Automatic annotation (TrEMBL):
Gene3D superfamilies: P-loop containing nucleotide triphosphate hydrolases. The keyword Nucleotide-binding applies. It comes from the Eukaryota. This is Uncharacterized protein. GO terms for molecular function: GTP binding; GTPase activity. One of its GO terms (cellular component) is membrane. GO terms for biological process: signal transduction. Keywords: GTP-binding, Nucleotide-binding. The lineage of its organism: Eukaryota, Amoebozoa, Discosea, Flabellinia, Vannellidae. PROSITE patterns: RAB (PS51419), RAS (PS51421). InterPro entries: P-loop_NTPase, Small_GTPase, Small_GTPase_Ras-type. It comes from Vannella robusta.
Length: 180
Protein backbone atom coordinates (compact mmCIF):
# COMPACT_ATOMS: atom_id res chain seq x y z
CA UNK A 1 0.00 0.00 0.00
CA UNK A 2 2.92 2.36 0.75
CA UNK A 3 4.33 1.91 -2.76
CA UNK A 4 0.94 2.40 -4.44
CA UNK A 5 0.44 5.65 -2.55
CA UNK A 6 4.01 6.77 -3.28
CA UNK A 7 3.84 5.95 -6.99
CA UNK A 8 0.37 7.05 -8.05
CA UNK A 9 -1.25 8.58 -4.97
CA UNK A 10 -3.71 5.69 -4.75
CA UNK A 11 -4.68 3.50 -1.80
CA UNK A 12 -5.98 -0.05 -2.02
CA UNK A 13 -6.72 -2.39 0.87
CA UNK A 14 -5.65 -5.25 -1.43
CA UNK A 15 -2.18 -3.89 -2.20
CA UNK A 16 -0.91 -4.46 -5.74
CA UNK A 17 -0.52 -7.28 -8.22
CA UNK A 18 2.38 -9.45 -7.03
CA UNK A 19 3.63 -9.84 -10.59
CA UNK A 20 4.57 -6.15 -10.49
CA UNK A 21 7.94 -6.04 -8.78
CA UNK A 22 9.19 -2.74 -10.15
CA UNK A 23 7.55 0.67 -10.19
CA UNK A 24 8.80 4.05 -11.42
CA UNK A 25 8.14 7.59 -10.27
CA UNK A 26 9.54 11.02 -11.11
CA UNK A 27 10.52 12.88 -7.95
CA UNK A 28 11.68 16.50 -7.78
CA UNK A 29 14.21 17.55 -5.17
CA UNK A 30 15.71 21.04 -5.10
CA UNK A 31 14.67 21.85 -8.69
CA UNK A 32 16.08 18.59 -10.06
CA UNK A 33 14.00 15.67 -11.31
CA UNK A 34 14.91 12.06 -10.65
CA UNK A 35 13.38 8.91 -12.06
CA UNK A 36 13.18 6.46 -9.19
CA UNK A 37 12.67 2.79 -9.77
CA UNK A 38 11.23 0.96 -6.76
CA UNK A 39 12.12 -2.73 -6.48
CA UNK A 40 9.97 -4.86 -4.25
CA UNK A 41 11.01 -8.41 -3.36
CA UNK A 42 8.36 -10.84 -4.60
CA UNK A 43 8.11 -12.93 -1.47
CA UNK A 44 9.47 -12.78 2.05
CA UNK A 45 10.70 -16.27 2.66
CA UNK A 46 13.74 -18.41 3.00
CA UNK A 47 13.82 -20.45 -0.20
CA UNK A 48 17.15 -20.38 -2.01
CA UNK A 49 15.76 -18.40 -4.96
CA UNK A 50 14.08 -15.87 -2.66
CA UNK A 51 17.27 -15.35 -0.65
CA UNK A 52 19.28 -15.00 -3.87
CA UNK A 53 16.80 -12.46 -5.25
CA UNK A 54 16.87 -10.47 -2.00
CA UNK A 55 20.68 -10.40 -2.02
CA UNK A 56 20.77 -9.28 -5.67
CA UNK A 57 18.29 -6.51 -4.90
CA UNK A 58 20.34 -5.32 -1.93
CA UNK A 59 23.64 -5.35 -3.83
CA UNK A 60 22.28 -3.42 -6.82
CA UNK A 61 20.04 -0.74 -5.34
CA UNK A 62 21.06 2.88 -4.69
CA UNK A 63 18.85 3.40 -1.63
CA UNK A 64 16.56 1.44 0.67
CA UNK A 65 13.21 2.12 2.31
CA UNK A 66 12.64 -0.44 5.06
CA UNK A 67 8.91 -0.60 5.78
CA UNK A 68 7.24 -2.04 8.88
CA UNK A 69 3.64 -2.08 10.11
CA UNK A 70 3.11 -0.22 13.43
CA UNK A 71 0.40 -2.76 14.30
CA UNK A 72 2.91 -5.64 14.07
CA UNK A 73 5.95 -5.90 16.32
CA UNK A 74 7.09 -8.86 14.19
CA UNK A 75 7.38 -6.60 11.14
CA UNK A 76 9.69 -4.22 13.05
CA UNK A 77 11.83 -7.18 14.09
CA UNK A 78 11.98 -8.21 10.42
CA UNK A 79 13.16 -4.73 9.39
CA UNK A 80 15.91 -4.77 12.03
CA UNK A 81 17.05 -8.24 10.89
CA UNK A 82 16.94 -7.17 7.24
CA UNK A 83 19.11 -4.12 7.95
CA UNK A 84 21.65 -6.35 9.69
CA UNK A 85 21.65 -8.49 6.51
CA UNK A 86 22.18 -5.35 4.43
CA UNK A 87 25.23 -4.58 6.58
CA UNK A 88 26.70 -7.96 5.62
CA UNK A 89 26.22 -7.27 1.90
CA UNK A 90 26.86 -3.54 1.64
CA UNK A 91 28.84 -0.78 3.28
CA UNK A 92 26.13 1.10 5.23
CA UNK A 93 27.88 4.39 4.46
CA UNK A 94 27.29 3.69 0.76
CA UNK A 95 23.57 2.88 0.90
CA UNK A 96 21.15 5.67 1.84
CA UNK A 97 18.43 4.04 3.97
CA UNK A 98 15.31 5.19 5.81
CA UNK A 99 12.85 3.30 8.01
CA UNK A 100 9.11 3.80 7.52
CA UNK A 101 6.35 2.70 9.88
CA UNK A 102 3.02 2.34 8.06
CA UNK A 103 -0.62 2.41 9.21
CA UNK A 104 -0.20 5.58 11.26
CA UNK A 105 -3.97 6.00 10.87
CA UNK A 106 -4.60 2.78 12.87
CA UNK A 107 -3.35 4.07 16.22
CA UNK A 108 -5.83 1.84 18.10
CA UNK A 109 -4.10 -1.38 17.00
CA UNK A 110 -0.58 -0.01 17.49
CA UNK A 111 2.01 -2.49 18.82
CA UNK A 112 5.07 -0.33 18.09
CA UNK A 113 5.24 3.17 19.54
CA UNK A 114 6.70 6.01 17.50
CA UNK A 115 9.50 6.22 20.07
CA UNK A 116 10.34 2.51 19.60
CA UNK A 117 10.47 2.92 15.82
CA UNK A 118 12.73 5.95 16.19
CA UNK A 119 14.93 4.09 18.70
CA UNK A 120 15.42 1.18 16.27
CA UNK A 121 16.26 3.63 13.46
CA UNK A 122 18.78 5.38 15.70
CA UNK A 123 20.34 2.15 16.98
CA UNK A 124 20.69 0.72 13.47
CA UNK A 125 22.79 3.67 12.33
CA UNK A 126 21.07 7.01 12.91
CA UNK A 127 18.61 6.31 10.11
CA UNK A 128 15.76 8.71 9.41
CA UNK A 129 12.42 7.35 10.63
CA UNK A 130 8.94 8.21 9.35
CA UNK A 131 5.50 7.10 10.41
CA UNK A 132 3.13 7.31 7.45
CA UNK A 133 -0.39 6.44 6.44
CA UNK A 134 -0.80 4.94 2.99
CA UNK A 135 -4.56 5.21 3.50
CA UNK A 136 -4.57 8.99 4.03
CA UNK A 137 -1.28 9.72 2.27
CA UNK A 138 0.13 11.40 5.38
CA UNK A 139 3.95 11.77 5.08
CA UNK A 140 4.30 9.18 2.27
CA UNK A 141 5.66 11.71 -0.22
CA UNK A 142 7.90 13.19 2.50
CA UNK A 143 9.55 9.77 2.96
CA UNK A 144 10.05 9.34 -0.80
CA UNK A 145 11.50 12.85 -1.11
CA UNK A 146 13.86 12.15 1.82
CA UNK A 147 15.30 8.96 0.31
CA UNK A 148 15.61 10.78 -3.04
CA UNK A 149 17.45 13.64 -1.34
CA UNK A 150 19.81 11.19 0.37
CA UNK A 151 20.53 9.43 -2.93
CA UNK A 152 20.99 12.78 -4.70
CA UNK A 153 23.47 14.00 -2.10
CA UNK A 154 25.39 10.75 -2.11
CA UNK A 155 28.44 10.36 -4.34
CA UNK A 156 28.65 6.84 -5.72
CA UNK A 157 29.36 5.15 -9.02
CA UNK A 158 26.34 4.35 -11.16
CA UNK A 159 26.66 0.72 -10.11
CA UNK A 160 27.23 0.32 -6.34
CA UNK A 161 30.16 -1.83 -5.28
CA UNK A 162 28.77 -4.90 -3.48
CA UNK A 163 30.71 -6.72 -0.78
CA UNK A 164 29.53 -10.02 -2.30
CA UNK A 165 30.26 -10.47 -5.98
CA UNK A 166 26.97 -11.41 -7.69
CA UNK A 167 26.62 -13.28 -10.97
CA UNK A 168 27.54 -11.14 -14.00
CA UNK A 169 24.74 -8.76 -14.99
CA UNK A 170 24.55 -5.87 -17.44
CA UNK A 171 25.15 -2.50 -15.81
CA UNK A 172 22.05 -0.50 -14.97
CA UNK A 173 22.05 3.26 -15.12
CA UNK A 174 18.75 4.04 -13.41
CA UNK A 175 18.52 4.96 -9.74
CA UNK A 176 16.84 2.23 -7.77
CA UNK A 177 15.33 2.13 -4.33
CA UNK A 178 14.56 -1.13 -2.52
CA UNK A 179 11.30 -1.18 -0.59
CA UNK A 180 10.95 -3.97 1.97
Amino acid sequence: AFVLRAINNHFSENGFERNSLSFRKMVSVEDESFLLEFWIPYNRGSTESTVEQEEMTITHCHGAILVYDISSRKSLDYVAALYRKILLLRDPLKLPTIIVGTKKDLNVTRQVSQEEGQEIATNLGNLIHFEVSAKTGDLVLDAVVEITRQMKDFEYPLQPEPKVIPKKKKKKTSRTCCVY
